[in-house]
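Section 5: illustrative case.
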């Protein structure tokens, strides 16, 4: 087997791994958005208004609107601890949103 063939295989594996990491990040980010949306429902807050207060330049966030469709009524939801929400927001770099959220805790 030639060295360049091995390198091509390694490059493909590297690309596949990179795609997996990106996809895993996106799934985690969607979960963070859903946690935020459900926390807002549970606390009788408008998730879109809070999000737009933190990020006024990002009106009509598609991912948030999709997550809102997946939320359940407060009485059907498990409690989401404030610390859980803040940690999830922090992991994905949403410190501005975390700051806004803390004003409602």
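Designed sequence:
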């Amino acid at each position: 087997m030639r060295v360049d063939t091995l390198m091509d295989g390694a490059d493909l594996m590297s690309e596949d791994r990179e795609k997996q990491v990106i996809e895993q990040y996106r799934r985690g980010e969607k979960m963070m958005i859903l946690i935020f949306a459900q926390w807002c429902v549970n606390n009788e807050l408008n998730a879109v208004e809070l999000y737009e207060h933190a990020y006024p330049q990002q009106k009509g966030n598609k991912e948030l609107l999709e997550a809102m469709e997946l939320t359940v009524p407060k009485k059907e939801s498990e409690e989401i601890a404030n610390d859980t929400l803040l940690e999830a927001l922090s992991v994905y770099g949403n410190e501005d949103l975390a700051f806004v959220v803390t004003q409602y805790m």
